[in-house]
């Protein structure tokens, strides 16, 4: 009996050790490229190519960031391209959250004929790759005169099926008793949605906002189709142009990558506290 317990305990310890090893390896695979990017951005190109690689820079090499801001043509177009990306990604994130919350709330809390069919049809659109609708979408954008405009960059992505799925699955567990109590007190549906449902959906909204923002911040294919002028290009287009014209200086490349990643890192650190927060649901329950 004791031998069996000892064997079981040994297997448990072995499994735990393997899991920790797997987590450490996964963390290293994620962290090491980021550390390389940040350290290489502070070095001249000759130091980056040294072997073994010097993980601690001898000093901060400012010309990398200055040249990254100036751009290959010296016109400081990076700032305008960064602003374009912020406008597009911010607008898409905002409207994606609003529309996904509305659709998810309706599918989760309102019973109507064909509700499950509507949900399944929305989910079916996730199976269609963007490349399959890219050309028809581009032709529609051309007919509507949306080329080289913010509207052309934003309009096709105001809502997505994953956002509806995420909010519906989150809100389906929201207590119906709270909603019924609010209706009995005379609250209208818009007021219930705005003052009870939205404040309690912080974790799901934060997750969806980050995913939507990241998707548009990293988007390359669609801006490549609809944008022609340098003034309307986004950060991914700036990076591809920079790499094509200034491909020999690795330090400048890393500086561009660092500056392009700062908004995403800032957004994640700002909203990550809502992932595990229950303040919204607590306040809604008290109300």
Keywords:
287 residues, mainly alpha, 2 domains, 15 helices, 0% strand, globular, disordered C terminus
Q: How would you characterize this protein structure?
A:
The chain is mostly helical. The protein folds into two domains: 2-64; 71-286, Orthogonal Bundle (MetI-like fold), CATH 1.10.3720.10. Helices cover 71% and strands 0% of the residues. It has 15 helices and no strands. Helix 5 crosses helix 8 (161-171), helix 8 (161-171) runs antiparallel to helix 11 (202-217) and helix 11 packs antiparallel against helix 14 (250-271). The longest helix has 39 residues, at 2-40. 23% of the residues are buried.
Spans of at least 5 consecutive residues with low confidence = 278-287
* Contiguous helical run count: 15
User: What structural category do the secondary elements indicate?
Assistant: mainly alpha
Relevant CATH superfamily of the largest domain: MetI-like
**Shape descriptor:** globular
Beta-strand residue fraction: under 5%
Q: What is the radius of gyration?
A: 24 Å
Domain module tally: 2
CATH class of the largest domain: Mainly Alpha
Element order: H for helix, E for strand: HHHHHHHHHHHHHHH
Report the CATH architecture of the largest domain.
Orthogonal Bundle
Range of helix content: over 70%
Averaged pLDDT: 83
CATH topology of the largest domain: MetI-like fold
